[in-house]
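Researcher: Re-running this chain for the archive, since the previous output was lost when a drive failed. Same request as before.
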Amino acid sequence: MTRHVLLVARAVTHTAGHDAVHRLAADVAAAVDARVSACFLDGAAPALHDALDAAVADGAGEVLLVPTHLPPDRYLDTWIRRAHHHWSARYDRPPPVSVTAPLAAQPALRTAIAEAIAGPRQRLPATAGPFRSAAWSTVPRHRCHVLICRGPRCTAYGANEVAEALTHQLARRGLGDDDVLVTATGCLFPCNLGPLVVVHPDDTWYTHVDAELAIRIADEHLRQGRPVNGQRPRSSA
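Model: Regenerated structure tokens:
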């Protein structure tokens, strides 16, 4: 029986952190008798759903999920279970999927920290570049602020592909941060309508967005100023 191991992480604030999770998966693969890869619950690719699909396509007889977030994260533990339940409903006979105790709860982590304390160290210099900069005191001049939900449900529904399509199309059209500021967010709440894209100051919400609609949003709304059948929240008045 072929076993696939998926290291499941939360999104981090920089791509180097995502790369580190993928490198960790490669290192683990060299030490265990299993296929090992990395995936993310939210905010980065590949999404957990996509990694599970890839394991099935690769003939996995069983899948083992390893929550890798430090410190322990109940959100990750809870949503791994919810994401698995949502994913498995798409298959008649999905392979068995199990989950380990979180990496942060493994006794070997204490050993690794003790070895780091006893190991080589580098003294920090008194100066290491500015903590503040004049450039970080200027409010951006963007015309539109676009929020792309990258929470766990929108990620499962395809938010990674939406974000990639929208940002690539903006770049193709020569629209930078001074024109359109794109921000990935956590949950924006109407999760059943995801993937979600919100354009301000127009207060326009796009629901069930896919890559094709994301390109239209970039071209028609953000470039030409014509919203693409978006929704405005009903007034509470």
